[in-house]
């Protein structure tokens, strides 16, 4: 789909018709529980992430709202799919989940205007920007980047579905929630993003070329609390679904 540059429901209509035809001829349904969903993009070319892009989270962590986007990268090797475990490594002492709406880029582009930014979006999905908070705090104290604390293996769950841009249009105003063991930790709406999606795409593309498969995580709300082995994290974003991942201790 990304190679074709077609990002509307018309692209998947032939697939829907094929499935409906098979069902009408007596073929059995396939139970989703019998299969493992992979991440929508298993190895994105680049994962760009916005830091402190919800005012509530910016105040929570920095005491102020940034005048320019704060952008960092996550390693593409940290991506996992729905239901896969987030591995809590032995050397970590605090790990925080972060619920985020993610944008998947569908066309190559640079110097993209805000007005044309939406045409470069292939779809939207859910991303959990898992963070080794103890490590991040230590790195910030010595002016090191956030990269390693954000890029540990399994620290980027994505999925479970991609919603096409003709189903989610600007202004993007979606409820977003994060639950741990049935307890709500984060709740907000993407209408409250400090920097909106068209601006983010335009701003990034001034400095670098966006390519098909790039992922942009748009930021997380307030409500940072740690998780531990045995916990179950669920992120709900309106119109997309629920991304669910357990936390497991690193094996011996």
Secondary structure: elements and pairs:
Blueprint: H1 9-24, E1 47-51, H2 55-62, E2 70-74, E3 79-80, E4 86-88, E5 95-96, E6 99-105, E7 121-128, E8 131-132, H3 133-141, H4 147-150, E9 156-163, E10 175-180, E11 183-189, H5 197-207, E12 215-217, E13 232-237, E14 241-249
Parallel strand pairs: 1-12, 3-9, 4-14
Antiparallel strand pairs: 1-2, 5-8, 6-7, 6-12, 7-9, 10-11, 10-13, 13-14
Molecular structure report:
There is one protein chain. By secondary structure, the protein is of the alpha+beta class. The chain has one domain: Alpha-Beta Complex (Fumarylacetoacetate hydrolase, domain 2). It has helices at 9-24, 55-62, 133-141, 147-150, 197-207; strands spanning 47-51, 70-74, 79-80, 86-88, 95-96, 99-105, 121-128, 131-132, 156-163, 175-180, 183-189, 215-217, 232-237, 241-249. The strands form three sheets. Strands 2-1-12-6-7-9-3 form a seven-stranded mixed beta sheet. A five-stranded mixed beta sheet has the order 4-14-13-10-11, with no helix packed on it. Strand 10 and strand 11 form a beta hairpin. The longest helix has 16 residues, at 9-24. The chain is globular, with a radius of gyration of 18 Å.
């Amino acid at each position: 789909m990304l190679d074709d540059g077609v990002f509307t429901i018309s692209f998947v209509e032939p697939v829907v018709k094929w499935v409906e035809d098979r069902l009408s001829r007596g073929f059995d349904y396939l139970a989703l529980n019998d299969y493992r969903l992979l991440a929508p993009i298993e190895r994105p070319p680049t994962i760009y992430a916005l830091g402190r892009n919800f005012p509530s989270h910016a105040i929570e962590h920095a005491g102020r709202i940034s005048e320019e986007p704060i952008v960092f990268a996550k390693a593409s090797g940290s991506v996992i799919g729905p239901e896969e475990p987030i591995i809590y490594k032995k050397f970590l002492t605090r790990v925080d989940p972060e619920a985020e709406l993610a944008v998947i880029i569908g066309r190559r582009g640079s110097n993209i205007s805000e007005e044309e930014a939406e045409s470069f979006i292939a779809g939207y999905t859910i991303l959990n920007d898992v963070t080794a908070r103890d490590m991040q705090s230590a790195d910030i104290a010595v002016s090191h980047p956030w990269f390693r604390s954000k890029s540990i293996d399994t620290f980027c769950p994505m999925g479970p579905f991609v919603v096409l841009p003709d189903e989610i249009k600007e202004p993007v105003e979606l409820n977003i929630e994060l639950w741990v063991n049935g307890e709500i930790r984060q709740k907000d709406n993407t209408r409250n993003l400090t920097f909106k999606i068209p601006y983010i795409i335009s701003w990034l593309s001034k400095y670098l070329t966006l390519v098909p498969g790039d992922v942009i995580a748009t930021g997380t709300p307030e409500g940072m609390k740690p998780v531990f082995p045995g916990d179950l994290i669920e992120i709900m974003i309106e119109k997309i679904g629920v991304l669910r991942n357990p936390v497991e201790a690193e094996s011996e």
